[in-house]
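REQUEST ID: PR-0412
SUBMITTED BY: lab tech R.K.
PRIORITY: routine
TASK: structure prediction, single protein chain
INPUT:
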Amino acid sequence: MTIDPSVVEQVRAASRTMVRELGFMRTTLAGTDYSPSAVHTLLELSARGTLSAAQLVQVLGLEKSSVSRLVAKLVRSGEVQETASDDDARTKRLSLTAQGTRTVGAIHAYGQRQVTTALTALDGAQQRSIAQGLEAYAQALRAQRLGAEPPAGSVIRVSSGYRPGLIGRVTEMHASFYSRHSGFGQFFESQVATGIAAFAGRLNQPRNGIWVAEQGPRIVGSVAIDGEDLGNGEAHLRWFILDEHCRGQGVGRRLLEEAMAFCAEQGFSAVQLWTFKGLDAARRLYESFGFELTREAQGDQWGTSVTEQQFTRDLTRRS
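STATUS: complete
OUTPUT:
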């Protein structure tokens, strides 16, 4: 494919401006006392759960010695912990501490404020164009480094706010998954549709938010924070669902990161969510974000007897 040289120069100039304006020329980043590479390390550990030092070398594209010094500093600072691998005791697995999780929440809140402030000067079409273009460009850069071709149509974008088709698509994903998992039918689907339709009418309130994952024009995941319905300074995490084909790709974690950063920014004291027993992958993901099981009871309000579970993340807790 022939590339217009003027486009190349435009992208390069924009990249230089972004590096300066986002703070990558400074010794610290995102309102922390850490370098850009350290901040990136914390974000990658948050997104992936655990990594070895060797995996971090590949992810960050840095020398092994640089990563070793970086990890050692983050361990000393209490942000990262090392544990022996179950498969090989000689290999250390790296993960965030509770302090590290809070730091990442603050980094996300800082980044959200920074990007949101810039995007408010643009209309909706420009905002979507920027999000899609940056995602595609980032994937192309990564593919070039790895010597691979980015799969056509594989880019999954995460963005916030209402868009046409949201209510129907989120309802459809819930109905499809829970009919297979729990045998739920029309009543459950109707309840989901009614609930999210009512919530969509409250998205103009500052303590409510919804985030969706999109692949091309199709919504493939969602999560919402309802900051009003519990009425006690706590947030209600609702409508967290992924399309079957995009599970296991980190999309759910990306959605939850956005939701948790929003909760931190809004100053909620806790986040509550309700789910059903047996959704083990989702439970592991919730627990990796600090959610704890606080209540469990049998219920048949959905037309089929299931064990309902309540999980809570205390946002005031300090380790």
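NOTES: Residues 157-314 form a domain with the Aminopeptidase fold (CATH 3.40.630.30).
REVIEWED BY: pending
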